[in-house]
Amino acid sequence: MSKFLKTIALALVAATLSGSAALANGDVDQGEKVFKKCKACHAVGEGAKNKIGPQLNDLFGRVAGSIDGFKYSKAMIAKGEEGTQWDQESLAAFLSKPKSFVKGTKMSFAGIKKQKDIDNLLAYLGTFSATGDTEPTTSETSDQTATTEPVEKAAPLKNAELPTHGTYHLGRMASEAEIAAWNHDVRPDGEGLPDGRGTVLQGEEVYVEYCASCHGDFGEGAGRWPVLAGGQGSLQNERPVKTIGSYWPYLSTVYDYVQRAMPFGQATVLSDDEVYAVTAYLLYLNDIVTDEEFELSNENFNSIEMPNAANFYADDRANEPQYNASAEPCMVDCKAGPVEITKRAQVLDVTPDQSN
Ligand code: HEC
Ligand code: HEC
Question: Is residue 67 part of a domain?
Fold first, then answer.
């Protein structure tokens, strides 16, 4: 046996000894009986899995809320982040009054009143814990005469008071302020635009500070970041360049997208006026406006016509004769005459060869 292994072996003996010393202060058999209160939700022992509550093997020394794959309440996770580890003291506090030790815990359990029951329970749980502090610190103060409170059962749903609103009667109504915070989409007709204004020149300053690092000085795109300008007239090409200017049908989408999502990673730092200004600058980069004094505002927003707008139209296939003619769509042998191949898929070879 190497020296290192011997040290570990000795440490294990020591741990086992101190473990059994701790167990002497609570009665493991009695503790097993107390654990019946927990069994519906918690498993211990070999192969114990998470149930309604997390498995409780190696509980002593465990950081609160730390079992992988178990969905704890925010409150329990926060408790662990604050530095709570499960030991004799913290467990005694939690198990006597779960909801006051971890405010907001989702463990629906009223608590154990009798200190002796807690000591016995922890002695029992200690037999499934290899490490950590199982030393009782509170058994001297135990009140042996108090009786165990009955376990609080969750109220059955049918007796619960249901909220009266909505279809499913869930949750609560969102407040006006909550709705306003989310409801800032801008529609193609300009509905939803905030009051504000900004010029091309002001927009250039915003753009240089917040956008050019990714989208390039002139919207050409730095590295592989998206291109924001150019591409007009390329939509019929084999490799169309789709940009705001060449492809997007509505300016409202630019405004909406920028105020919601850009600058990437720092969204919503821009004021409404700055978004108007940088939108004006993007129009300028795309030659949709040519005057650098041009000011975009909620008032003249709808006067801007995007070059590709006409190529977007509502799906009108339902009005076409072949869709309209028969009530039932044809599913079998629909084409009269022989089938011809008119086109073949093309190999584009856009993925570089691994070998070179
Ligand atoms: C009705 C189900 C239920 C019962 C009964 C119950 N628990 Fe829990 N227990 C939970 C749930 C759910 C959680 C997770 C709590 C959270 O995330 O806020 C939990 C968490 C715990 C934790 C924290 C574990 C960790 O990983 O941080 C301990 C310790 C614990 N319970 C012990 C017990 C003991 C001991 C009993 C019996 C006296 C008991 N519980 C009874 C459901 C239950
Ligand atoms: C850190 C890099 C970065 C910065 C800075 C940045 N963007 Fe972007 N931008 C992106 C990425 C990435 C996308 C594509 C996101 C996607 O498709 O999910 C994008 C997409 C866009 C698009 C849509 C382009 C298209 O054709 O789909 C617009 C418009 C845009 N950004 C405007 C701006 C403006 C205006 C600013 C400055 C206020 C800005 N961006 C700052 C990275 C950036």
Answer: yes
Which residue from 41, 67, 116, 152 has its CB within 8 A of the most atoms of ligand 1, so it is best to mutate?
Answer: 41
Query: 265 CB under 6 A from ligand 2?
Result: yes
**Given this model, what pLDDT does residue 108 score?**
85
112 Cβ below 6 A of ligand 2? no
For residue 279, what is the domain's CATH number? Answer: 1.10.760.10
Cβ(219) – ligand 2 distance below 6 Å:
no
Residue 347: is its pLDDT beyond 50?
A: yes
Q: What pLDDT was estimated at residue 348?
A: 73
Q: Residue 10: which domain range?
A: 3-141
Same structural domain, 124 and 12: yes
Residue 356: inside a domain: no
pLDDT above 70 as % of the chain: 81
Quick check: 352 pLDDT over 80?
no
Find residue 342's DSSP bridge partners.
Answer: none
Looking at residue 160, what is its pLDDT? 63
Same domain as 230, residue 299: yes
Same domain for 118 and 25: yes
Question: Is 268 near ligand 2, meaning CB less than 6 Å away?
Answer: no
How many domains does the chain fold into? Answer: 2
DSSP label at residue 15 = H
Lowest mean pLDDT among 16-20, 52-56, 104-108: 16-20
**Residue 218 maps to a domain:** yes
Read out DSSP for 254-303?
HHHHHHHH-STTSTT-S-HHHHHHHHHHHHHHTTS---TT-EEETTTGGG
Q: What DSSP state is assigned to residue 333?
A: S
Q: Is the pTM of this model over 0.90?
A: no
Q: Look at ligand 1, atom 33, and give the residue with the nearest C-alpha.
A: 38
**Length reported for the chain:** 356
